[in-house]
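User: I'll paste a sequence; please echo it back and then give the predicted structure.

Assistant: Echoing your sequence first, then the prediction.
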Amino acid sequence: MGKRVTLKNKYFTGKQLKTTFKDDFITTDTWRIFRIMSEFVDGFEGLSQIKQGISIFGSKATPKTHPYYKLASKTAYTLTKKGYSVITGAGGGIMEAANKGAKKAGGVSVGLNILIPQKQMPNPYINYLMEFRYFFVRKVMFTKHSHAFVVFPGGFGTLDELFETLSLVQALRIEPVPVILVNKDYWAGLLDWFQARLVKEGTIDKGDLKLFTVVETPEQVHAAIKSFYASKKGRRE
């Protein structure tokens, strides 16, 4: 069952949350459905007050001294000052940097923590924390409550989040949203492979390469989000 803190005045109160899950709580898949349902209910209710959320993804292993960490923190700070809420996976590295920037800017700093055997402890810069047992429920919460996705350098987990978002947009299962990759040098090899293999062999259309944008700076991240929604509004009109 997802855990959440409560809304206090304009911002959310933040405190360490403890889970009381027991491995023997459920013995059959049939009963497990009810726990899954409870996580969805808690997630939808708990995040319903988050406005203009920006999900920031990236490696949990990025050290505090790394340029990526500093860039993620500055990006979150910039977006928060523009009125956005920052949502991360609640862990260390890029996630911690983003929550740190959001908190420093005096805004809403959301962490969607996952309960895994390696025990990911939420970073200390979150002022609104929720915890999930199921990865797929947590992913739905990112998707439903995000106004944009900003992806910093990361590993398998980051790539999983990136490709799932692109797949949902490509398949028209969610409304189009800005998907923004940060640091051209890091993503260059992957983007070259998209062009040289996927487009060439017809596994994706060339137009699918327009589902994301690659930028370098916090200002460019914000500009990409503004440009996307300005263009979307213009098409509707």
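The domain at 3-236 is CATH 3.40.50.450 (Rossmann fold). The mean pLDDT is 89.
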